[in-house]
Specification:
Length: 338
């Protein structure tokens, strides 16, 4: 197959492991194969992307369905500690747990997932847990669709629960919401003044809210915060949201929390919302991918690239407006497709 971007061709393929090995490994839940497959999904090299598609096609349709849990919240709220504590609870029960991150490079505390890995001490040493260190090129783009693909690869590798930690800013939040079954917001104990400061979007998007660090001197504050949030949600017209207190440090409330999460899943499944949301998400990523490909084609295909360049020049010298450029381009596309 001809590569859309001729520049991709000159680059060396980054991975040497054979396709059959990765296919076999993924089916058996082998972590090295999973890691390699995720690397392929993050690669900017066309051959790597093609190899990944080949692998996915060889595996065929996957029956197993993972539960995906997005974890977001302000820096230092305890996202990694929470995943460590709750994830450890799950692996001890025999579940397989994977942990991924969205855009860890932009964390204010500079907490890359490599750093996070050390904060997931219990989980990172367990055989049933897969923690994905962040690639250094994450910020080069393609982050968001590749995280979605990474989730699917964990699903292929038979992981029961997939946690995705996000730093809680802008675009990555919206993307996270489009990827997970349960969007969980972690909050700090506090007077509640900070409630004003919690982005409205987070409140709207959140399915579960956990006031973390419910221990020591902050315990009472955490309980108050939970009550306050429950009140806010009670008065809200949209779907019911659950609020919990938790301490990733003490892990006393884990069973209660697990019951709450299971109840949430059960109710969502019963109402049809669970499947509905997954369908909507598939539709979103489908459209996203198709748009990406159209964009790639129009930018790199020789027929369009020259015209785009000419139109851009005219626009930048104020000869035409972007609106006009768009129309000219669209009409010429139609013409070429005839
Ligand atoms: N007392 C107490 N401390 C906690 C709890 N959970 C986390 N911490 C502490 O809070 C600090 C930050 O925890 P992390 O788990 O790294 O927080 P994070 O939200 O992942 O941080 P970033 O990834 O850097 O945004 C660490 O020093 C933890 O030990 C908790 O439940 N109780
Ligand atoms: Mg963290």
């Amino acid at each position: 197959m001809e590569s859309i971007n001729p520049n991709y061709k000159s680059k060396k393929q980054a991975l040497t492991i054979s396709k059959d090995d990765i296919v076999k490994g993924l089916k058996n839940g082998d972590m090295l194969s999973l890691s390699k497959a995720i690397s392929l999904s993050e690669s900017q090299i066309q051959e790597d992307q093609d190899l990944l598609i080949d692998i996915i096609e060889s595996i065929g349709q996957v029956q197993h369905r993972s539960i995906t849990i997005g974890i977001t919240g302000p820096p230092g709220v305890g996202k990694s500690s929470f995943i460590d504590a709750y994830g450890y609870h799950l692996v001890k029960k025999g579940y397989k747990v994977a942990v991924l991150a969205i855009d860890p490079t932009s964390s204010i505390t500079n907490g890359s997932i490599l750093g996070d890995k050390t904060r997931m001490e219990k989980l990172s040493f367990h055989n049933n847990a897969f923690i994905r260190p962040s690639p250094s090129s994450l910020h080069l783009g393609g982050v968001i669709p590749s995280t979605w693909t990474a989730i699917k690869l964990c699903e292929i590798a038979n992981y029961d629960f997939i946690f995705i930690e996000s730093v809680g800013v802008g675009q990555s939040e919206i993307a996270l919401h489009k990827m997970v079954d349960i969007y969980t917001v972690l909050l700090l104990p506090g007077s509640g003044d900070e409630l004003q400061g919690i982005k409205k979007g987070l409140i709207e998007m959140g399915d579960l809210f956990i006031v973390n660090k419910c221990d020591g001197a902050q315990k009472e504050l955490a309980i108050q915060k939970k009550k306050m949030l429950a009140q806010v949600f009670h008065n809200a017209p949209n779907k019911i949201k659950s609020v919990f207190t938790y301490s990733s440090l003490l892990q006393e409330n884990t069973i209660n929390l697990e019951k709450g999460i299971n109840k949430y899943i059960e109710e969502e499944k019963k109402s049809g919302e669970w499947e509905n949301r997954r369908k909507q998400q598939l539709n979103f990523w489908f459209e996203n991918e198709i748009m990406n490909q159209i964009q790639k084609l129009s930018k790199h295909h020789p027929i369009f690239a020259a015209q785009l360049e000419a139109l851009k020049k005219k626009t930048l010298t104020n000869e035409i407006l972007p609106l006009q450029a768009g129309k000219i381009f669209y009409l010429s596309l139609l013409e070429k497709l005839k």
